Amino acid sequence: MSSEGAAACGGGVCPASSIEALLADWNGIDDVWVFGYGSLIWRPGFHWQERRLATVRGYHRSLCLWSHDHRGSPDAPGLVFGLDRGGCCRGVAFRVSAADVVPVFQALWQREMPNGAYVPRWLACSTADGPVRGLVFLLNRACGHYAGELSEDRLMASVQGAVGQSGPCLDYVIETERALRACGIDDGRLAALVRKLSASLQPEAV
């Protein structure tokens, strides 16, 4: 998931009520899992007890959300990852201790939920040690930040040219791909994009 698409709150789910609704059937004793597919993998920002490689089916990682602040600007928006429908996504599941669940969720809502770009859901996450039920932030296609399918030229230009409060969009994309490789996760589409972005930055041979 990405924490980089946050903007001023508008039209999103009320954080307090959505946390309460999501935790309504939690017994307050068991640890819970949080699934990361973007910057959460390399910058989770919360204390976790265990992490496992995990797969969520029915959704795929995609650079499909405009960022007008953290990785871009209103004049030159960048792109951040969302979990869009179709396919499957390999990522990392983090186990959060029961004692930390409420503060961790509050921090995650501040990070992920200010503009309605994501919809939190409990989904089955397949791991080598068996399935776990994890919190997953799915893309909300109805939000105003949804970029949809972009041409490769426009996607590359947006990534290369955007800089926001959290730094260049290019760094965000490269760091995510690097973190996936470090975990042994092969995202061929993202890897191909990073190769093209890197090649475009190389000076031409004289």
From TrEMBL:
Keywords in alphabetical order: Lyase, Transferase
EC numbers for this chain: 4.3.2.7
Gene3D superfamilies named among the record's database cross-references: Gamma-glutamyl cyclotransferase-like
Biological processes, Gene Ontology terms: glutathione catabolic process
Claim: Lyase is one of the keywords in the record: yes
Protein name stated in the entry: glutathione-specific gamma-glutamylcyclotransferase
Top-level taxon of origin: Bacteria
Pfam families: ChaC
Top enzyme category: lyase
PANTHER family xref list: CATION TRANSPORT PROTEIN CHAC-RELATED (PTHR12192), GLUTATHIONE-SPECIFIC GAMMA-GLUTAMYLCYCLOTRANSFERASE 2 (PTHR12192:SF2)
InterPro entries: ChaC (IPR006840), GGCT-like (IPR013024), GGCT-like_sf (IPR036568)
UniProt key word Transcription: no
GO terms assigned for molecular function: glutathione specific gamma-glutamylcyclotransferase activity; transferase activity
GO cellular component annotations of the record: cytoplasm
